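Researcher: I've been going back and forth with a colleague about how Pimeloyl-ACP methyl ester carboxylesterase might be arranged in three dimensions. Neither of us has a model we trust, so I'd like an independent prediction. The organism is Sinobaca qinghaiensis, in case that matters for your notes. Sequence below.
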Amino acid sequence: MYIDIDGVNVHYQVSGEGANVMLLHGWGANVQTFAPVHQRLEKDFKVWSIDFPGFGESDEPPEPWSVGDYTEMLGKLIRRLDIEDPILMGHSFGGRVSIKYSAANAVRKVILVDSAGVLPKRTFKYYYKVYTYKTLKKLLKLPLINKYEQSIMDRVKGKVGSSDYKDVSGVMQQTFVKVVNEDLTHHMPDIKVPVLLVWGENDEATPVADGKRMEELIPDAGLVVLKRAGHYSYLDNLNEFIVIIDHFLQKEKKEAASLD
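Model: Here is an independent structure prediction for Pimeloyl-ACP methyl ester carboxylesterase. You can compare it with whatever you and your colleague have in mind.
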């Protein structure tokens, strides 16, 4: 499905019944990277997966966007689709948008997964390489694509390891520069709802130290670290991740069941 938000065509998927859960993907990803989570949660919730502008099947922004621009777009989408009291689940870049939105708008709960938002200490080049490579590697594990995984990854390894990243131009590269340099820690104390932080212990893109910092700054936050998981902890340890989410959203599940 698609919705026009100020001239930008935004792609989304929705299924299930119950409390509204919105899945907000990371940089370079799309609704497919959250598909295993969507499929598990739709049994108990009304689940919305969104392609941010510039990713998946959504249009690119008309100009370089900041986190604030993406947050404003999300707010308009929520109002247009009448999504009440959403539970936001944001991975990486999606966590940035979740932080900024929930600090100033009504939400029910927030789940931040390997979230960005603490000003990175590494260079732009490093983050560009890490996000691009890791996202592609996970996408290539999906059915119908995985048979081409090795040949594609061989080419990509050579590319992201070189200076070729400088040749990537256009609105999304400029957007990336804006986004990655924005520190959101000053918004974190303004989040007044329960927040679950889920991190992979081996996350190199947004290290566990970022999650600990968020736990300190967000008033009602708790951190869970998944063993032997990386930046895509929810895919690396999917079953454990779902058990943790199920526990955090137990009240919302019971409320939905009581209405049946």
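Researcher: What would you highlight for our discussion?
Model: I'd start with this: The first helix runs from residue 35 to 41. After that, consider the following. Residues 156-169 have pLDDT under 50 and may be disordered.
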